[in-house]
Design a protein that fits this description.
This protein is of the alpha+beta class. It has helices at residues 2-19, 74-79, 104-115, 154-160, 194-198, 216-223, 230-248, and strands spanning 60-65, 81-82, 88-91, 95-98, 124-128, 132-137, 143-146, 152-153, 173-178, 184-189, 203-204, 209-212. The longest helix has 19 residues, at 230-248. The protein is elongated, with a radius of gyration of 27 Å.
């Protein structure tokens, strides 16, 4: 009986230990504060890189000429104008124009100069229609997330993905990015620690991949094809003895 009690106590202690890695945005530097106390964290003083998406080959873009909205057929605008494998687009009047490698603002100015030969003071807007980030792993709605702006935070992306599953590792979220030279970069984010998160780079840019890892219990369950966990077995064995002990007292 004593051994069973120790096992049950160990299970409870284990559950308590994992609780700290389950809750998000904990202020671990101010544990004794009340629930209503506001916490502030001064992040290190450095400039965050400004994300300016550069048009890629095979992107689809929208080109709007405000004074002449019908110059580009609406049906083409709806599905987007394809940037071909050479990085060019083909447009009415101006023909082929190389846009790959330019930001959306730079592309608009380039096209304004081209159209100025044929139109009086044209004003344009260029927008990439297929900007995405990808969230994989232990989230409720994995897959691509369409972006309607230049950048999004990790917490926004996870909310669009339906939030984290119970089996998700929250203190080691992996973010994969590709820099301008095609090199892969990796970041690790701890969503459970407010101070660490506030001082880290939470910004995602288009084509970033967020991977939420499964915890050890999920890995065990998958690799053993649903075999009951050892702790579950111990709990089921110990439950009748615990009940008898409680009733006898």
């Amino acid at each position: 009986m004593k051994q069973i009690s120790i096992l049950v106590l160990s299970i409870l202690l284990f559950a308590g230990c994992t609780n700290g890695k389950y809750k998000l945005l904990q202020d671990k530097s101010n544990k004794n504060s009340s629930a209503t106390t506001q916490s502030y964290y001064k992040a290190p003083q450095y400039k965050r890189a400004v994300v300016n998406y550069r048009i890629l080959k095979n992107d689809r873009i929208s080109v709007v000429i405000y004074q002449y909205p019908n110059l580009i057929p609406p049906s083409l605008q709806q599905r987007g104008i394809l940037v071909d494998s050479n990085g060019d687009v083909s447009l009415p009047l101006v023909g082929r124009v190389h846009l790959a490698g330019l930001t959306q603002t730079q592309a608009a100015k380039t096209l304004e100069r081209k159209y100025a030969r044929y139109l009086k003071k044209p004003a344009l807007n260029v927008e990439v229609l297929n900007k995405r980030v990808y969230v994989l792993g232990e989230v409720n709605k994995p897959g691509p997330i369409a972006l309607d702006k230049e950048q999004v935070t990790i917490l926004e992306a996870l909310s669009f993905a339906g939030g984290l599953k119970d089996d998700a590792i929250r203190d080691d979220v992996i973010v994969l990015s590709t820099n301008g030279y095609g090199q892969m970069q990796i970041r690790h984010l701890d969503l459970t620690n407010f101070s660490k998160l506030a001082s880290s780079n939470m910004i995602l840019k288009p084509n970033d991949i967020v991977y939420i890892q499964p915890n050890s219990a999920k890995i065990y369950s998958v690799t053993t094809k649903g075999t009951v966990l050892p702790f579950d077995i111990i709990t089921k064995i110990a439950a009748p003895f615990v009940s008898i002990k409680t009733l006898s007292e």
